[in-house]
Amino acid sequence: MRIIFFASIFVSTILYSQQKNIIDHNNLKQGEWHKKYQNGSLKYKGQFKDGIPYGTFLHYYNTGELKIEKKYFHNGTASSCHFYYKNGQLKASGIYVNELRDSTWNYYNFNGTLILSEQYKSDLLSGFKKVFYEDGNLFEIQYWKEGKKHGKFEQFFQNGQLKQSSIYYMGIKQGDEINYYFSGALHSKGQYKNGVKSNVWKYYSKDGVLDTTINIE
Prior knowledge:
CATH architecture of the largest domain: Alpha-Beta Complex
Structural class: mainly beta
Strand content: over 45%
Helix content: under 10%
């Protein structure tokens, strides 16, 4: 009888470990979890312990290709994520903290070229934001604070030549702005006050000659 009793416990343990999508008596997720699309293909798989996700979660397109790889750490409060195109090429990568974007996020085009890099804190842009041309050359760099543009703003031509330089203060353009031609020659310069052009603006021809001066009240 004792042999039968222990055998019963052993079989029950195996069956329990093979089950998926388990919620225990405390209403907490336990063990391996799967979810499927209506067409029957796997949508995601991962695992929980006492309701907390851990390890690697894999999410799939409804056609079967890997869509997201999400690795949890810090007791499930943070995760590093990699998003993929259907062809397997990396689409984006970054970190979530408490399910909010944090630190540096990078985004890539279908050919694997970096086209956007930005920094977050609690899902708000905070730090730099770099935008790139499709060939990977820098198009624009901005600085952000608490979800608003704050600091130097620079824009570039595809050959790397500076196109525009200006300054933002908590989302509002303030102070000097300078614009350049593709050749590097000065195009125009002036000031912004509370997001509006003000004072004297000067415009130059491509050969550097002052062409127009505008006094803005």
